[in-house]
UniProtKB/TrEMBL annotation:
Keywords noted in UniProt: Dioxygenase, Iron, Metal-binding, Oxidoreductase
EC number per UniProt: 1.13.11.-
GO molecular function: carotenoid dioxygenase activity; metal ion binding
Residue ranges, annotated region (Disordered): 1-35
Species whose genome carries this gene: Microbispora hainanensis
GO biological process, one term: carotene catabolic process
The record's free-text note on cofactor binding: Binds 1 Fe(2+) ion per subunit.
Entry protein name: Dioxygenase
Binding site for Fe cation: H174, H222, H283, H452
Claim: Metal-binding is one of the keywords in the record: yes
Top EC class for this record: oxidoreductase
Family as reported in the entry's similarity comment: Belongs to the carotenoid oxygenase family.
Compositionally biased intervals (Low complexity): 1-32
Pfam families per the UniProt record, alphabetical: RPE65 (PF03055)
């Protein structure tokens, strides 16, 4: 294995920045999100011919990219969620792990541009640190408070993408691609009206629809869902607070706001709202329509107490999104005929980062995968059972499902997850049907616990 350090800063001269701030004096304690398994790495490296334990399936030919916050040395933005985006990439081909590399997403904020200025908000001055996807031959680094950034397959930054000038809002980090039409559904939210806007990209990547959605106020709308005929909104009581601006994430719990789920017709835009018990949801597993026309939503739900205990203390030596204390897999069944939402907890294990076989997005699906503090969990929602793959001292990241070619079963494929300790990391490859360990790739450095990623398969020989 050969490791080649590269520069830790852009090759162009960077203007002075006041965002994020420098780390407080050493007499003050270091923020927990800058230490332990969350601690950022100081530079970018390349490595080739990575060691493999077990046998990598030759069908896994492509790139696994995972995004997450990674402030530069000496920086502290005041919250885990606001560090500059860094994408870690592993190239697999024909049973080999050809390379690893990590690159900061070189946004205008990375170069010193402020998000808020005298003319308003600069949607390009964002950390781009939450997710990375491919749609219509574009690889996009995403964060929910601004524009996506286009990346190359080698993880060079191309620049911000507003889809030909048509996107005038932020773009969620959790868009949903319809497996039938190939369209990409997403939304933007913000502190000024319209607080919520729905968008739709064609399968070819053209922005073909933008539609405001009426909600009472500005909330932290992190995720949503689609079904075959609907979009499902999560209008939940974590609200924007101007008094918190400049102090990390300017959102707080508000009992007075209430909680509801909205079912919007994809054809007409009409929304039917369903009141639910107060809660918060960062991540949806899937949604679908059952044989009675009801909308079924599976998501990881935080009770008010769990969220309010978790939100102020994000950080620490373990991945906080995988050690939540009170976040569990739930199901809502929304009945348009009665206007009633039924809620049931599917398990009592603390989990986060639910994933599915994305060929089933918006359609009836049986399996949900999630991660806990030291385990990757598979839920069988048809029979109410679960099984777990224990990762020991390694903290597992989101488990991305990769379907096997010509798969006959929903769970026929593999799970990819970066598992990390304070001293090292590996890419785990599990059999998605039984969670058996298939192979692992030892990475040349520790990878900080982060957020979301994607498997980007090769589309043609030599890609």
């Amino acid at each position: 294995m050969t490791t080649q350090p590269t520069t830790t800063t852009p090759t162009t001269t960077e203007p002075t920045t006041t965002e994020p701030t420098t780390t407080p004096a050493t007499s003050q304690p270091t923020a927990s999100y800058l230490t332990g398994r969350l601690a950022p790495v100081p530079d970018e490296i390349d490595a080739i011919d990575l060691p493999v334990e077990g046998t990598l399936p030759p069908e896994l030919t492509g790139r696994y990219f995972r995004n997450g916050p990674n402030p530069r040395p000496g920086e502290d933005g005041g919250h885990w969620f606001v560090g500059h985006g860094m994408i870690h990439g592993i190239r697999l081909r024909d049973g080999r792990a050809e390379w690893y590399r990590n690159r900061w997403v070189r946004t205008t904020r990375f170069a010193g541009a402020p998000y808020v200025h005298e003319r308003g908000v600069d949607l390009a001055a964002v950390p781009a640190n939450t997710h990375v996807i491919r749609h219509a031959d574009r690889i996009l680094a995403l964060v929910e408070n601004g524009l996506p950034y286009e990346m190359t397959p080698e993880l060079d930054t191309v620049g911000p993408c507003d889809f030909g000038g048509r996107l005038a809002t932020a773009m969620t980090a959790h868009p949903k691609e319809d497996p039938i039409t190939g369209e990409l559904h997403f939304f933007g939210y913000g502190w000024a009206k319209p607080y919520l806007t729905y968008h739709r990209l064609s399968a070819g990547g053209e922005l073909v629809e933008s539609r405001p959605v009426d909600v009472p106020g500005p909330t932290m709308a992190h995720d949503f869902a689609i079904t075959r005929h609907h979009v499902v909104w999560l209008d939940l009581p974590v609200v924007f607070d101007f008094d918190l601006v400049g102090r990390g994430m300017p959102y707080r719990w508000d009992d007075a706001y209430g909680a509801r789920l909205g079912v919007m017709s994809r054809a007409t835009g009409d929304v039917r709202w369903f009141d639910i018990d107060p809660c918060y949801v960062f991540h949806v597993g899937n949604a679908s329509e059952d044989e009675h026309g009801r909308v079924v939503v599976d998501a990881v739900r935080y009770s008010p107490g769990a969220f309010c205990g978790f939100w102020p203390t994000i950080g620490g030596v373990a991945n906080p999104a995988a050690h939540t204390g009170g976040a569990a897999l739930h199901r809502w069944t929304l009945d348009p005929a009665t206007g009633v939402a039924r809620d049931e907890q599917l398990d009592d294990l603390d989990v986060e980062f639910p994933t599915i076989n994305e060929t089933r997005t918006g359609l009836t699906s049986r399996y949900v995968y999630a991660v806990g503090k030291d385990a990757i969990v598979k839920y069988d929602t048809a029979n109410g059972t679960s099984r777990a793959h224990q990762t020991g001292e390694r903290s597992p990241g989101e488990a991305v499902f990769v379907p096997a070619p010509d798969a006959g079963a929903e769970d026929e494929g593999w799970l990819l997850s970066i598992a990390t300790t304070e001293h090292g990391a590996e890419l785990l490859v599990l059999d998605a049907s039984d969670l058996a360990r298939v192979a692992s790739v030892r990475l040349p450095r520790r990878v900080p616990a982060g957020f979301h990623g994607s498997w980007i398969p090769d589309e043609a020989p030599g890609a």
